[in-house]
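User: Here's a structure from my thesis project, written as structure tokens. My advisor, Dr. K., wants to see whether a designed sequence matches the one we expressed. Can you design one independently, without my sequence as a hint?
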């Protein structure tokens, strides 16, 4: 089982996802929850890169920077592919297991809308 590249994002593994719509919509819901709890921060998602990208674990972070490791105070949580919180994997001590690139909540929303065939501006709640 080859690992994903460190630069993996949901967009880059979309074609290999087992259930793309279910996966992306679940990630988007967790991003919305994080944004609601942290309205002043940018909210984004990084992928777990120790796998094939069929249903990767993911980490939600605040104010990320491409290529920079996450600090504990910026990690909201990590989740299994079924969107249940991972236990014990939210520490910055295991940053090497997470992608160096990320997608923002707006990018994930745009991807999901595109997957579902929606065009035009996004209705913001």
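Assistant: Designed independently from the structure alone:
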């Amino acid at each position: 089982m080859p690992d994903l590249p460190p630069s993996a994002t949901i967009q880059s593994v979309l074609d290999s996802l087992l259930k793309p719509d279910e996966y992306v919509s679940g990630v988007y819901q967790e991003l919305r929850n994080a944004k609601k709890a942290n309205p002043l921060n940018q909210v984004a998602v990084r992928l777990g890169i120790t796998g094939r990208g069929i249903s990767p674990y993911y980490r939600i972070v605040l104010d990320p920077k491409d290529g920079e490791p996450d600090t504990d105070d910026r990690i909201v949580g990590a989740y299994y592919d079924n969107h249940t919180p991972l236990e014990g994997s939210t520490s910055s001590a295991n940053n090497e297991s997470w992608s160096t690139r990320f997608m923002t909540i707006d990018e994930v929303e745009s991807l999901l809308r595109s997957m579902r065939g929606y065009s035009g501006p996004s209705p913001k709640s």
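When you compare it with your expressed construct, this may help: The CA atoms of residues 48 and 97 lie 6 Å apart.
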